TrEMBL record, chain B:
Entry's Gene Ontology cellular component terms: plasma membrane
Location (main, coarse): membrane
Assigned protein family: Belongs to the binding-protein-dependent transport system permease family.
Name of the protein in question: ABC transporter ATP-binding protein
A Pfam family the protein falls into: BPD_transp_1
Domain ABC transmembrane type-1: residue ranges: 58-246
């Protein structure tokens, strides 16, 4: 087991921040079989390097939006653009990182080989990708667990490997789909801190889908609350909270006010 | 051997001793003729007396079964990969693989003699036909059971078809694949012996199937029993080797192999 409270990013192995991209979503429409309109004309403009939380009722289309942005699904109408472009001269695309609700590690691979997988799939040589994976595992506080297997890790550690795997390509856009929802409160809080610290250091654009109002308020600079489907924007708000955040923030009046506003918007969105 | 393994071995051993004692006692008490049901002691004696021919026959049969099993393992996985490559291919071909499951091997064994000539080759093919289906069916289930999110992740990083097969689908299918191989290992021996009944006559050493037939013709029921025991022993050995290999490969990651 890793000692509790360990996950503070190590200064030993810095990852070069590659900066974020601007994500512009215009008139996005996606209908599922059975004529279920999940998105019908959604617009969203995310500034480069910002941390945006997406909130909304279950099944409202948050995950669909994320999948569309990642290119894992196709929209019937609308447009998603990235500035600067993610297209590379060779015709391939700079990777967008995606963290799923479960860690989704390959159980037959060690922690190191799991974290190195994205680089392996894009054809990076073994010594190079292993060095990069080691550095990023160091960052999430798993520098001493590289040889272990997923079955030997706690849920929180697995999620950190998943985060390391997402960061190993130095993504300029990080998409997270309720990544810590299955974890206990304490572990979740720690991972929230860690994610925020990594974001401040690396400066990528983050789109974070969550059910939790307090998690959204704690992590994000800006919160977008969606209605039930087809998803429309109920509230789009830049949170009036300090850049430097710690657990004590959760008890302050400014935090409570933001949380209340988000809560009201969520309830309003349920009725739409 | 540790204590729990020892404790696990005691009940079946006790059951065996009780069963053999009952068998021996009943046959002697009722004076059942030896050619009908020999007592265990006679089977043991016949086995010891004919040990070298039993061993030779087991090696012959084992060789054919190994060839059949090996072919099943390789071709079964290849066919499963082919079937998994598209729903169209699966829909078109999978029903026909079911023939393998239902084909009465005794009935087509004469065909095998016609095509491959009597001898080990026809026997190995018989073993192969009988053991192929479980490998295909289980591997296919395994290849199909990959979590969609993992596929998404591979797509996200632009993985090519072959990389997805090699780094995601095949490893994920391993537990199912080994289930198929374990079933196939037992069937391979059965298929070899059935094959020998029909196609096993050739110059050179005879297999266990031939030994069973000749013991039957001479009414040497004790030897027949000994040969049957040798045949199931052979199946157990093959099964054990496959199980251990699977457990070793899956040890660090799959729940089915934890604690082995």
């Amino acid at each position: 087991m890793a000692p509790p409270g360990l996950p503070s990013p190590s200064p030993l192995a810095p990852i070069s921040g590659s900066g974020g991209v601007r994500v512009k979503v215009e008139g996005l429409r996606r209908t599922f079989p059975g004529n279920v309109a999940v998105l019908s004309g959604l617009d969203l403009d995310v500034a480069p390097g910002s941390f945006v939380a997406l909130l909304g009722p279950s099944g409202c289309g948050k995950s669909t939006l994320l999948r569309l942005v990642a290119g894992l699904d196709r929209a019937e109408a609308g447009h998603i653009s990235f500035t600067p472009t993610l297209e590379r001269p060779q015709g391939e695309r700079a990777p967008i990182a995606y963290v799923f609700q479960d860690a989704h590690l390959l159980p037959w691979r060690s922690v190191l080989d799991n974290a190195a997988l994205p680089l392996e799939l894009t054809g990076v040589s073994k010594p190079e990708r292993q060095a990069a994976a080691r550095a990023v595992l160091e960052q999430v506080g798993l520098g001493d667990a590289t040889d272990r297997y997923p079955a030997e890790l706690s849920g929180g550690m697995r999620m950190r490997v998943s985060l390391a795997r997402a960061l190993v390509t130095h993504p300029r856009l990080l998409l997270l789909d309720e990544p810590f929802a299955a974890l206990d409160e304490l572990t979740r809080g720690r991972l929230d801190d860690q994610l925020r610290a990594l974001w401040r250091k690396l400066g990528m654009t983050v789109l974070f889908v969550t059910h939790s109002i307090s998690e959204a308020a704690y992590l994000a600079e800006r919160a977008v609350v969606l209605s039930r489907r087809p998803a429309r924007v109920v509230l789009d708000r830049t949170l009036e909270l300090p850049g430097e955040r710690s657990a004590s923030l959760r008890t302050e009046a400014s935090f409570a006010r933001e949380a209340r506003l988000l809560n009201e918007a969520l309830e309003q969105g349920e009725r739409w | 051997m540790n204590r729990s393994a020892l404790r696990a071995a005691v009940p079946p051993l006790v059951a065996l001793v009780v069963l053999l004692t009952l068998w021996e006692g009943t046959v002697r008490l009722l004076e059942v003729p030896r050619w009908l049901v020999p007592p265990p002691s006679a089977i043991g004696a016949a086995g010891a007396q004919e040990a070298s021919s039993l061993l030779g026959a087991a090696v012959t049969t084992g060789r054919s079964a190994l060839v059949g099993f090996g072919l099943s393992a390789v071709l079964g996985v290849l066919v499963a990969v082919l079937l998994a490559s598209s729903r169209m291919v699966e829909r078109a071909l999978y029903p026909y693989t079911l023939f393998l499951q239902t084909v009465p091997i005794v009935a087509i064994a004469p065909l095998l003699v016609l095509w491959f000539g009597p001898g080990p080759r026809a026997v190995a093919v018989s073993s192969f036909i009988v053991s192929l289906f479980p490998v295909i069916a289980n591997t296919l289930t395994g290849l199909r059971s990959v979590e969609p999110s993992l596929r998404d992740m591979f797509r996200l990083y632009g993985a090519r078809r072959l990389a997805t097969l090699w780094k995601l689908e095949l490893p994920a299918a391993m537990p199912h694949l080994f289930t198929g191989l374990r079933i196939a290992s037992g069937l391979a021996v059965i298929g070899a012996i059935v094959g020998e009944f029909v196609a096993g006559f050739s110059e050179g050493s005879a297999g266990l199937g031939i030994l069973v037939l000749s013991a039957y013709r001479q009414l040497r029921t004790d030897l027949l029993f000994a040969a049957v025991l040798a045949a199931s022993g052979l199946g157990l050995v093959l099964f054990g080797v496959v199980s251990l290999t699977g457990a070793r490969l899956l040890r660090r990651w799959h729940p089915s192999a934890q604690g082995t």
